[in-house]
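Hi,

I'm pasting everything inline rather than attaching a file, because the server keeps stripping attachments. The sequence lines come first, and each chain or strand is labelled.
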Amino acid sequence: MIDRLQELGREALEEIKQADSVKALESVRVKYLGKKGPITEVLRGMGQLSEEERPKVGQKANDVREEIKEKLEEKTEQLEKAALDEKLKAESIDVTLPGKEVKQGARHPLTAVVEEIEDIFVGLGFQVTEGPEVETDQYNFEKLNLPAEHPARDMQDSFYVTTDMLLRTQTSPVQARTMETFEGQGPVKIVCPGKVYRRDDDDATHSHQFMQIEGLYVDKNVQMSDLKGVLEAFVQKYFGADRSIRLRPSFFPFTEPSVEVDVSCGICGGKGCRVCKHSGWIEVLGAGMIHPNVLEMSGFDPEIYTGFAFGMGVERFAMLKYGIDDIRHFYTNDIRFLNQFKRA
Amino acid sequence: MLVSYQWLKNYVDIDDLSAEDAAERLTRGGVEVDMLHIRTEGVEHVVVGYVEECSRHPEADKLSVCVVDTGSAKRTIVCGASNIQAGQKVVTAEPGAVLPGGVEITTTTLRGQESQGMICSLQELGVEQKLVAKEYQDGIYVLSDDAEIGADAVAEIGLRDTVLELDLTPNRPDCLSMLGVAYEIAALLDRDIVHPDTAHKESAEHTSGHVSVQVDVPKDNPFYGVKVVKNIVVGPSPQWMQNRLTAAGIRPISNVVDITNYVLLEYGQPLHAFDLDRLGSSEILVRRAAEGEEMTTLDGETRTLSSEHMVITNGKEPVALAGVMGGATSEVQDDTTTVLLEAAYFQPARVRKASRQTGIRSESSIRFEKGIDSGRVEEAAERAASLLETYAGGEVLQGRVEVDHRPSENKKIETSAGELNGLLGMNLSEDDILSIFRRLRLPASAENGVIIVEVPTRRPDLEREVDLAEEAARLYGYDYIPTTLPSGVTTPGFLTDRQRRERRMRRFLESSGLNEALTYTLTSREHSSRLQLHTLPGKVDVSLPMSEERSTMRTSLLPQLLDTVQYNRNRQINDAAVFELGSIFIGESGGELTKQPQEKTVLAAAVTGWWDTHLWQGEKKKADFFIIKGVLEGLFNELGVASAVEFVRSAHTELHPGRSADIYLNGVYAGFTGQLHPSVEKEWDLKETYVFQLDMDLILSYDAVSVFYETVPRYPAVTRDIALVVDDGVPAGKVERVIKEAGGNLLHDTSLFDVYQGENLSAGKKSLAFSLVYLDPDRTLTDEEVSRTHDNVLKQLEEEVSAELRK
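And the predicted assembly:
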């Protein structure tokens, strides 16, 4: 009987070996290990065996069964792995094909610049204020120390909508409006971004509409050296820590002393190149100590308060930052232009 | 202002300084030199030649063949100028010479005649045509007889010079004169000033015997003075004077005119020379013009004047528009012998008005408008008299006739070292400050710590203490101002809630795939009536527009956004998604504004073409209503107002009637969205385009629903799907609202997952399939509870929208 079992074991293993599918293996299992299978058959004949032989045959039968089971499992696993491998192979893709683009629009470069500048000044303790684009003559000019006969108030340079209202030519009226809300009590620390309008023919460097950011700091004991310090901190944050500034005397009706602020050229490091017109410096800001008349007209006592103001052209900052050569690009909105500022 | 560097050297010793260095000093000191022009730049090896012979070219009537002695050689040169003659000294470019623009002169053959060089006009040396004196405009330039043969012709003429172009700020009209610039550079370098020579002889005859002066408008004209110069011989002015005038951009005319212009440049004092014999009387009366009064100015134009204009008259009619331009009748001419020289101080505003209204901007009006030195008027008159004596053979009559209403005392300003340092953040000593004022030639004295400065008339810009602070700082050097940070109280910096929400809005739209655009605020009248948010009472027009295209303030952002889409389409960019956040301007119904117009912040977008594509996978989706609506719903969610928003079919005539919606926020109209009406698309030459425009002032006035944590559900939800058959005309939104209302608190979520029309449904019906999720956060719902609510939902649906369950 033991021989018979051995024989069956061999046959079964051979069949397992031959099986080429999970299904074939299953029929092998049923055939040999099923209730009607040959091993069970053999065991049924055990009654005829002696007491001594019985455990031996029983043991043998178990061994054979175990072996068949083991081999079945082994083979099943093998076949399943092969099938999976086959499936994975079939599912393979070209990983170099392009992925699906996540739709993403771009920030307008002028918005990017305005927000960056706002953030720098917010970090320095400033607030952001806004005001109307159609201004009264009083706020756009008179309260900024440009009385009626002042040459800078030329009709030819502004867009008037009535005799005493015009499209603001600067964001400074927002300063005057904001200062008034403080009712003569400092400190006032604000930046005012916005659109302004002047009668210029549009070309590569001129635009009848452009954006400005003006800033204002009014408090007791504000000195011109503070203006220099705050603007240096700003310029180094915006353009880079390695940049320096210099002040040049200039003139604005609402500040005295007035200065133009140059930043050292980032292209040549101050040695002189085409970008800085070989001077090593690039003009970026106008600034000055607020004229006592302006403080007075906005409700601040110039004997107690002093302050500084500064203004910059957003387009110019954007042109310097991104190397844009024509101001009209900002308002043409060519998608190929806009798309370049997704990371701005 | 154009400043000849050679001329400047007459007044201040700057021989040790190059024009470039002087320009840098001026610029750093606050008088900006915009550009340096090297006169006759690039001209090399051009010499003085003597025309020994001059004969007609055998083959050409208009050409001459000359033999020219250039010192080193005798050259045969063909010349085309009509004024060439033997015996002249001329500007000769020999072979190898270089003219402006790198033109190299070689030996050539002209009509069979070899020409060894070229005889030059001033234009060929780089002098602008409009600046060349009339006699040399159409021909070669003839040098004076004493010019040395073979010498550098450019130097001989006096054109070796550099011109500094100043970009003056309006507070420095003093630098509209050579003397003013000299004062400035002398102050910067701490050097002496040499004043012009005003000396001249005076005849026994007195000016007052020839002319009387009356000023009716002393406020407009605080000073009016005249001198008379007799026996004048009109002719050309000396070459050096011509050179200085052309350096400043003024064309030489004649000695008399040139001298008035020369003194104008030297002192910044405009002068006018009348031909006394042509004046028509011996009387000068300064008055306002009568309304509608006419006069013919020097340029031959007839001007109609108003009472805003000030005129110089001969007692009857105007002979000059004061400070702007002289009249044609009394103009100095070739036969003039007696000159009436006017030296006056006119108020800036009066001159500015006349200049603006007549459109004449003369060297004279520019200076009067900005303010001349009221204290140097007489000196300038004497200087001109001196020059007329020397260069026009004139006999200067004794004295002046003048009317003087100028203030007699100069302004004084008080300050102190402490005050100036306090403002500047510097540490200047009183001596430092006094030394600076001395260099600036501002008379100053100090006593007990108080510095008193007497402001000279040439610096009317110095009005108060801060002006002196600027003078001290700029002369000391802005580089020496220390760098400090404000010492006052610290304040928190922040963006307002609204500013933060506007930023969020931009971020959301960008990450939804829309590009931000910025368009012009000024637009055309045609655009201003299009695609408005709602009917507006009026527009805001510009009084004097530069063009029709920019004549009024926008009333909608969409027309210009559609222009943007069109612009891109014209450049083969057919897929566009753009938005803009900006103001529209609302006028008044009467037309004319009585107060500042309302500025409303609106948000608009335009989307067209492919929206969602992954080409190699065959995915292509065009922008449609539900894409733009999805963006809007996301935006409202981002702004925390989603639950208050409702979309209702729109009746906007410029939108597709079937594919557009008005947007309401808590029942208040807040904007619209949808496809453009095909006729509008056609007008802008666009394909299917979807837009929206929202009143952001309204939307942002609602507080965002605050974010507050809700317990994550711990009990299971029960989902019931239903398919409802309703009339075609019943909006899905309405069905959903019925479900939500009837579902009450237990109904946790509702979503539409299928819309069907067609087979198996009768005509005029549609099927809407919803998934309803019931949930109680505090316990497990029983089947009965759910059924009770669900049955109520079905009942309400049947009652309110006649919905039947689809079997």
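The CA atoms of residues 281 and 802 of chain B lie 104 Å apart.

If the labels don't parse on your end, tell me and I'll reformat.
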